[in-house]
Amino acid sequence: MGQGASRPRGGQEPPAHRNAVSEPSDAREATGVGPHWAALVCVAALVCIPVLLAALLVSPSSPTAREQQRASFVGSATCATCHAPQAAAWRESDHARAMAAAAPANVLGDFSGVTVTDGRHTATFRRDGDRYVIRTDGPDGTVADFTITETFGVDPLQQYLVLFPDGRRQALPWAWDSRPREHGGQRWYHLMANEPLPATDPLHWTGREQTWNFMCASCHSTGLVRGYDAATDRYDTRWTEISVGCESCHGPSAAHVAWAQAGALGEDPHRGLSVRLRDRSGGAWRFAADDPRGIARWEGPPRQSTAAQVETCAPCHARARPLVADPSPGQRFLDTHAPLLLERGEYHADGQIQGEVFEWGSFAQSRMSRAGVVCADCHDPHRGTLRAEGNAVCAQCHLPERFDTAEHHRHPSGSAGAQCVSCHMPAVTYMGVDRRRDHAFSVPRPDVAAQIGAPDTCTSCHTDRPQSWAARQIVEWFGPRRRDDPHPALAIVAGREGRAGGDALLAAIATDRSRAPILRATAVSLLPMPPSPATAQAIGAALLDPDPLVRAAALRTLDGLHPRNRLHAARFLGDETRLVRIEAARALAPVPLDALPEAARPAFVRAWEELLASERVAAERPEAHVNIATLLAARGDMAGAEAAYREALARDATHLGALVNLADFEARRGRHAAAEAALHRAVAAQPREAEAHYALALALARQGRAADAIGSLAEAAALRPEEPRYAYVQAIALNQLRRTEDAMAVLRANLERHPRHRDSLMALATIERDRGNFTEAERLAAAAVALNASDREAAALLSQLRGLRQRLPGIR
């Protein structure tokens, strides 16, 4: 389920968001110090609150189509009659035990009547015959007994599900640590022990963030139909096999069984299977005798199954937003999912895993992926284990005489440090006990890690040593040159933090097709808007990139442009990849149909329906309806947008994104009282959320009530000191109210925390200039220019101040 961490605001991975991504906003906040604060901040309406789209819910297909699909599954027992060795291996795998009925043969936890508490949460586990029961706080906060219906997973922990009358299966927060006792296991523990989690919290075990049907089902069962009914808000979720069976990867196999029974050997190259996973190209990985690197290369025809193998694993081993309901095995990944890019908080700037992002996103960065390596080259696809133990699995393609030596790994042979994974696959622990390895297979760079504030594999083991020591050791061993200098992490962190020159660094990565597509797409997504000539050229090149992930990211950047400048997206409405088509439609949302080329209009209508359908996949989620409302409003369908906002609030009347975006929607229609009322509801429901207070302040400012907004701004800045924008706008408001000393104090404190915040530097420089403190103003303006030499406003202010110094000798 993936629910082992605390809330996203706390800097950790949010629980149970395997298929969640944040929807970026079209809104762009104003910069600089203007004469009218209300005019400044009204541009910053909080349409930008991130919207999580993690749903796996609604199937628009008819019941007949669903039954036909289910009928084409035959079950793993049928497969085993002809494929006994593979079936025996599969039965030992975690896939086979991904989910099971709560029966004595499957339950690992101690249900002997024990009561467990961690100081915040308490539960009692008992057995009543073959029925397993937990006594804990329920959906209304009342302590009660709940019957466990299924087990969920097996190693290194097992979770448990409870079926509710509305068809929802909810994952309990108490998990059984199934590791051996000598490793700390054989105990109950709470997955979010540091969270109070009242029954009203979406993260409570009965809340929407822990709903199995929504968060987990598609990857833990076979032939799943989620069966969500939006009208009744109920589920009728069904599967053909409770766990991950053969057909989860090979696809429905009724036609294959018919082929086998007919004895038509050789007549069907796919043998009736919808997914072709077995490679029949006749090639192999071989070591070239004259290659000093000692790395195997593929020799022979191109591998026929490379894309199919990786894309079969990707939907369940990637952090991605589903684009279609109940996707079938064998569909192209980007036709069914929108994967998360290398986003802050989920990946470190050097691409290391940070949040619970699973394996695909890191593997997609690797040289191995670009060389044609697939998951099954290292993992037995049926047993799920490695094909060999220790370094032997790497030795399949990396010559041991070259790599498994002290001259290479610089550690005693046989030690933990001599293992390839110790240096090239750093691990992160999720859900308290689940240690997972990074699959980017990167080269250790403690020098880069020190610059970007990321961990490195050297000092993760040598905890008593600084990163500078590790960097020196690597230079001594291998020399100062690196194949990936300048390291792309420096561009990514520059883009994330708006550093000077970051746009040029990002543009260079975005247009370098030797880089991994996920890295190129991430670089494109970080390009500042509006674009400079250099970044505009990079976006243009990215639109023509051969990889659809990069094209989709480039289309998303067009959201920052005026609608008349988005017409370039029209040519992608008929792209072969669904993700690209829907991003083209999203970019063109505010463009009137008659403004499109006539030939593109039918394609827009089709792509627009695909876009809305991709949002409706999440019909249970309030966030999905907020997204739909935003899209409909962009098309001018105000009635439809209002109805979508009401749908969102019907699912959660306290949902922050719905209330804040509804308020902005109302304000744009001139209904300021309704907007303010929605924001007061948001503040009352989410008093610890800075966005609620900030949005209320903006609404008050639009009405010319800056004095009333000060308190809300101060609250937002206090709640999120890590966000410099809030304190900056608070200072602007104070200055407009002629509370200049207070404004300067807020700006100085903000710059102590965020010395590179350009707007605070400019604001304080302007105030100091107006007070006649030209020397200090010049220092601050120079610091702003140092951040970005092409910043015309900062350069003009600095030039003005230097001119004043020349004309007025003796000034401060």
From TrEMBL:
Keyword Transmembrane: yes
Transmembrane segments: 37-58
Alphabetized Gene3D superfamilies for the sequence: Flavocytochrome C3, Chain A, Tetratricopeptide repeat domain
Residue ranges of domain Cytochrome c-552/4 in the record: 78-103, 211-251
Coiled-coil regions, chain positions: none
Recorded GO MF terms: oxidoreductase activity
Pfam family, one: Cytochrome_C554
Keywords, in A-Z order: Membrane, Signal, Transmembrane, Transmembrane helix
Sequence ranges assigned to domain Doubled CXXCH motif in this UniProt record: 375-399
Chain spans, region Disordered: 1-30
PANTHER family to which the protein is assigned, alphabetical: C-TYPE POLYHEME CYTOCHROME OMCC, DISSIMILATORY SULFITE REDUCTASE SIRA
Identification of the protein by name: Tetratricopeptide repeat protein
Organism name: Falsiroseomonas bella
